[in-house]
Amino acid sequence: TANWTGTSSCANSYSLTLRNVEDFENASTLFTISGGTYLTGANTGGSPSTASLSSTGSYGYGVINGAAILTSTAFKTSSLVSPSLSFNLSGLSYGTTTNGVDVGDSVKVEISPDNGATWYNTLYVNSSISNGFWAFTAAGSATTAYDGDNTPVVFSGNGSSNGIATVTVTGLPTVAALRVRITMRNNSANEAWIIDNFRLSS
Q1: SS3 track for the chain
Q2: Would you give the distance in Å from CA 147 to the centre of its chain?
Q3: Contacting residues for 7 by C-beta, under 8 A, at least 6 apart
Q4: Cβ atoms within 10 A of the Cβ of 33, count?
Q5: Which residue, 190, 161, 201, is CA-closest to 47?
Q6: What is the pLDDT of residues 117-132, one digit of tens each?
Q7: Residues 123, 143 contacting (CB under 8 angstroms)
Q8: What is the C-alpha to C-alpha distance for residues 124 and 154, in angstroms, rounded to an integer?
Q9: In this structure, is the dihedral angle defined by the CA atoms of residues 76, 78, 83 and 85, taken in order, positive or negative?
Q10: Strand pairing class (140-145; 164-170)
Q11: pTM for this model (two decimals)
Q12: How many CB atoms within 10 Å of residue 59?
């Protein structure tokens, strides 16, 4: 877990400046958290059976049979150019090979442009089938621009090809105090949502 500013670039000359970083290494400095737990190791006995419970470092943050609400500190984005957020996501059949996340299980991303006074439901992820699962290494992604209309864009995934392993919200408002709220919900002791590697960038 860290607050860090640095620049990453790639071969096509696109550059990205990381403003805030949260890796959930058994603690969090960027989020106040209700529900859920830190998870480490591999999904032993579950599906995918070799799936890591973190995408970076040793820990991810997940929920098993319940709800976890992660509310960020206030980010000053007023001086940033095209700010965006991203994090990694995994949905697992946890501790068994016969379960997994369902259509009714969800991960929701809300944005507040006014320090938490108003929240806008921006992005929603669920499984496209009953008992779906995917690792952090899945190829799918969910990306939408913030529009402040409180109607989320819905993404559904499953499996190594279509499981949604990267969640991104672009075009965040440039304000004095932006907050992010991530809510994960499921309803079985053999279902897990896990997030990791939260980044606020511009």
Answers
A1: CECCCEEEECCCCCEEEEEEEECCCCCCCCEEEECCEEEECECCCCECCCCECCCCCCEEEEEECCEEEEEECCECCCCCCCCEEEEEEEEEECCCCCCCECCCCEEEEEEECCCCCCCEEEEEEEECCCCECECCCCCEEEEEECCCCCCCEEEEECHHHHCEEEEEEECCCCCCCEEEEEEEECCCCCEEEEEEEEEEEC
A2: 19
A3: 15, 16, 17, 18
A4: 15
A5: 190
A6: 999 999 999 999 999 9
A7: no
A8: 5
A9: positive
A10: parallel
A11: 0.92
A12: 21
Sheet-wide strand order for 179-185: 31-34, 67-72, 179-185, 106-112, 120-127, 153-157
Point out which residues pair with 162 in neighbouring strands. Answer: none
Phi-psi group of 79: left, alpha or beta (phi > 0 → left; psi -120 to 50 → alpha; rest → beta): alpha
Amino acid in the structure at residue 10:
C
Instruction: Give residue-wise pLDDT tens across range 62-121.
Output: 999 999 999 999 999 999 999 999 999 999 999 999 999 999 999 999 999 999 999 999
CA distance 177 to 93: 37
